[in-house]
Specification:
alpha/beta
Length: about 400
């Protein structure tokens, strides 16, 4: 072989060798300078009061960015209004994944809306931290890229039932609930908890999300002679029910899940009728002296002074705190799999919310809630330490799957 031919052969060999060297594929939503995170929430529609959650997350991410970001990367946050509608949620999620190329999602309000995108996000291997809703579907069975720690509705209901029976001596307990997975999750928990006391619900009254006249619903509760009513509904339905009950002279002990725990706004829209309502809550109270709470409130006053500081708003921070911690633990090597591994190292991690623990086969991070009560002027006070329910979640899953 001539020398010139040998050079050509060698050049071709080197070129081919380079061509087959695998090229590292960029991680979706992660660059040298940013991490793309998405969230949806109802800024409009029947559940618009819950829209404060996504805005609270925005505040938290802005604070993180002002502090320099995470390992040299800033968070680019995409928030969309789903108006509490599953079809709109599906369109939003597809846009954010396929067009904006977000790395992960945090929060996302609406049990039905979240169910509409659960399979899609799992198939796309998109990390999703804390779907906002107490459905068992987020963590049972465990799914690699999804981590939940919002209180299970069934467990919240069981905690309230125990308190109503043991502490308040209530004999006739009724349940007023949204007629979907959100409401039924609480309903099944209440029924299972009551069975321990050889008791049944005095009445179970469903409501549809778009209903506005609750007169007949209220009459059913009153005619059942319920001395305690648990509400698993939208904020607007909670307000309408209390106002309607006041007009007909019906005054049971009202109880609710954490979904109606923002006592300031609930007291305002009920014109003071929220006083005395007992609720579950998973985070510090608005006036807490917790060091982190003080920092977050000062940040809100600086960066978002027009926002109202309340439980719905800073819940958006609670839901994002574990995500930020996992980013920190990943270092610069941020991939979906490394992020999952970092989330699984969280053991009793705590910000202003509950203690959170995950693991390779554990995707529900917390089982504890406080009980609170609304007092004069909408002020919330705690009436219990952290409480756990003792119901068997497997029984709830069986009921839901029927």
């Amino acid at each position: 072989m001539k020398k010139g031919d040998l050079v050509i052969v060698m050049a071709v060999f080197v070129f081919c060798s380079i061509a087959v060297i695998p090229v590292a594929q960029a991680e979706r939503g992660v660059t040298d300078t940013e991490i793309r995170i998405g969230q949806w929430g109802p800024q409009t529609g029947p559940a618009a009061l819950w829209g404060a959650v996504a805005r609270g997350t925005d505040l938290y991410f802005r604070m993180i960015n002002e502090e320099g970001g995470i390992h040299g990367r800033k968070i680019k946050y995409f928030s969309r209004d789903n108006a509490y509608q599953p079809p709109r949620t599906k369109a939003i999620v597809k846009e954010l994944v396929e067009d904006k190329e977000v790395f992960a999602f945090v929060g996302g309000i609406g049990t039905a809306s979240n169910m509409a995108v659960k399979k899609y996000l799992n198939n796309k291997k998109v990390p999703w931290i804390c779907p906002v809703g107490g459905s068992t579907s987020w963590a049972f069975p465990p799914t690699k890229y999804r981590f939940g720690f919002y209180p299970l509705y069934c467990e919240e209901a069981a905690i309230l039932i125990d308190y109503a029976v043991k502490k308040l001596g209530k004999k006739r307990i009724a349940f007023f609930y949204q007629n979907d997975d959100y409401g039924k999750g609480g309903l099944y928990g209440a029924e299972l908890a009551l069975a321990k006391y050889d008791m049944k619900l005095a009445a179970a009254v469903p409501v549809e999300p778009l209903d506005t006249d609750l007169g007949s619903h209220c009459i059913k509760l009153k005619e059942a002679k319920a001395d305690c009513v648990l509400m698993w509904v939208l904020p607007k339905h909670g307000a309408i029910m209390l106002i309607t009950a006041e007009k007909v002279g019906y005054k049971p002990q009202w109880m609710t899940s954490s979904t109606l725990s923002d006592t300031q706004i609930m007291n305002k829209i009920t014109k003071g009728l929220y006083k005395g309502v007992i609720f579950t809550i998973f985070a510090e109270l608005p006036d807490s002296g917790h060091p982190l709470m003080k920092i977050y409130k000062q940040t809100q006053e600086k960066l978002a002074p027009k926002e109202r500081w309340g439980i719905f708003y800073y819940a958006g921070i609670v839901f994002a705190e574990p995500m930020i911690e996992a980013f920190k633990r990943c270092g610069r090597d941020l991939t979906a799999d490394n992020f999952v591994n970092s989330m699984e190292t969280l053991r009793e991690f705590q910000g202003i919310g509950p203690k959170i623990t995950f693991g390779p086969n554990q995707r529900h991070g917390s089982q504890s809630s406080y009980l609170g009560k609304c007092t004069e002027g909408g002020k919330a006070v705690l009436i219990s330490d952290l409480m756990d329910s003792d119901i068997d979640v497997r029984e709830i899953i069986k009921r839901i799957s029927r």
